[in-house]
């Protein structure tokens, strides 16, 4: 086989490969479209099955929102009987699930973000209702934070800080780092008001080692 023949064969193989890939891509697009249409049909069916109710329970709590077959599902507002705090957001199979906002009784936001089965799960922000002011935070021992924090923004798992997050303090300082089981665990950075920083390792909220 000459050089010209080899080039022609290579070109034919290349064109065949491109055609196969195009066919695969077209098939995948069709499959994606079928799945997308099925999801839309399910969502439309659920929307048709949803009704809106207003229920007052024996303990004084109230639900005002959507249900499917009598079970909370869709958008809804739940007012708790204790103090008047309330939740506005998404429900699924009777549980808070999806995006939602929890409010303190004074209508200040307590938590906004993702939920799974009535708990903070995923990305979210929790706000301190009763902030106390302090000049400096003891970055070596976060167990002493008390109410000297303004908000935590980051990852949650089952109502606890879990993963990467940021705590902003009333002193104007902040901590950016890793959390596990609601405590600072792993590498983190503490930012002072004057712009200086401390990089270190924390275990259960206690600074174990300063790296910088």
TrEMBL record:
Q: Return the Pfam families for the record.
A: MORN
So which domain of life are we looking at?
Answer: Eukaryota
Q: Mark the transmembrane ranges.
A: none
Query: Which keywords does this Swiss-Prot/TrEMBL entry list?
Result: Kinase, Methyltransferase, Repeat, Transferase
Its BP terms in the Gene Ontology are: methylation
Question: Which Gene3D superfamilies does this one have?
Answer: Histone H3 K4-specific methyltransferase SET7/9 N-terminal domain (2.20.110.10)
Give any GO molecular function from the UniProt entry: arsenite methyltransferase activity
The Enzyme Commission number assigned here is: 2.1.1.137, 2.1.1.43
What protein am I looking at? Protein kinase domain protein
Q: What is the lineage of its organism?
A: Eukaryota, Sar, Alveolata, Ciliophora, Intramacronucleata
